[in-house]
Design goal:
The structure is a single chain. The protein has 14 helices and 14 strands. By secondary structure, it is α/β, with parallel strands linked by helices. 49% of the residues are buried.
């Protein structure tokens, strides 16, 4: 009979990670471990307060499904439970268990290519223009930078980052931090800095403003993050956005994320494979989405003071394929 174990782990962040909603100095994650005889599967999730989640609440939610897991609940059975971090941990643990039981890699089971050579964005936290220019200069050798915005003075911030990293590609992420009064000036500043994509500039429920901007005034594809969770959201999101950020913690696991990826492609949307700030155990399954995405933002372990062992191998911003001892 399968047994489920749930643990809460903490990993210090290198410095401070700051976005428009606040700052953090550690990543607290929930790990689900499913033991089935001599085979073990693991999955990691990162609860997110923005979606009403707490670490303790998500851990309790995972534990609450222990009986269902022991009775043989499948990944398909899990899809009847709410999307979110708890379902993600269990879904990824079941993928890992299935792969190890079959003696095949998870991407083979999913019918996907081996996720080799994925280039991830590297995130610059929200700070003063001077501090962000210094951080950009330090990261200027990386090919793709993700710039956290979402506060007064964003035009100065994005211009400072461009000065610090003149050769890097840029995407901007406002985390719902702009409003109707600032959106025009911020879009113009991003366009002047050569930004290729803007994530979730406006709060959920107020992103209808995007329809009034018009593509000509906007000039940069806009990516839904907080406005998008599962495939059920795609039809509404596609009316306002040209891209979507697929995160396993939002979608509720790799199974749902792959369904979301397929639906996004049906609508002709650009896809980013994103993450919360977690360890390599959370990034590994997300790499299967990244192998079919246009952008990857899987730099969580690069933002940590220490990662779990074994972890992913990062060569600068390039992520290589990983071994089954990590996941899948």
């Amino acid at each position: 009979m399968r047994q489920l174990k749930v643990g809460i782990e903490s990993f210090p962040i290198a410095g401070t990670f700051t976005i428009s909603r606040g700052s953090r100095t550690e990543a607290r994650v929930v790990v689900a471990t499913i033991e089935d005889g001599d085979v073990t599967g693991r999955g990691e999730c990162v609860p997110y307060a923005r979606y009403g989640e707490t670490v303790e609440g998500v851990a309790a939610g995972v534990q609450g499904l222990a009986e269902a897991i022991s009775l043989g609940a499948s990944r398909q059975d899990l899809q009847t439970f709410p999307a979110g971090a708890a379902r993600n941990a269990l879904d990824c643990a079941l993928w890992d268990l299935e792969a190890k039981r079959a003696g095949k890699r998870a991407w083979t089971l999913a019918g996907l290519p081996e996720p080799r050579g994925v280039i991830t964005a590297y995130t610059l936290s929200l700070d003063t223009p001077e501090a962000m220019e210094a951080a950009a200069r330090k990261a200027a050798g990386r090919p793709l930078l993700k710039v956290k915005l979402g506060a007064a003075g964003d035009p100065e911030r994005i211009a400072a980052v461009r000065r610090g990293a003149p050769g890097s590609r840029l995407v901007a992420d406002a985390n719902e931090g702009w409003d109707e009064a600032s959106v025009d000036a911020n879009f113009a500043a991003c366009k002047a800095a050569g930004v290729e994509l803007i994530e979730q500039p406006l709060p959920v429920g107020k992103d209808g403003i995007l329809a009034d901007l018009g593509a000509a005034r906007r000039g940069i594809p806009v990516c839904a993050d907080e406005s998008l969770h599962t495939a059920a959201d795609i039809s509404a999101v596609a009316r306002l956005y040209q891209a979507v950020n697929i995160k396993l913690d939002k979608a509720g696991g790799l199974t749902a994320a792959l369904a979301l990826l397929a639906e996004a492609r049906q609508y002709g949307l650009t896809v980013m494979a994103g993450c919360m700030v977690g360890t390599s155990l959370a990034m590994a399954p997300a790499l299967l989405v990244a192998s079919r995405a246009d952008f990857a933002d899987l730099d969580g372990p690069l933002l940590l003071a220490r990662d779990r062992e074994p972890g992913l191998a990062y060569y600068g911003s390039e992520i290589e394929a990983f071994g089954p001892e990590l996941w899948g």
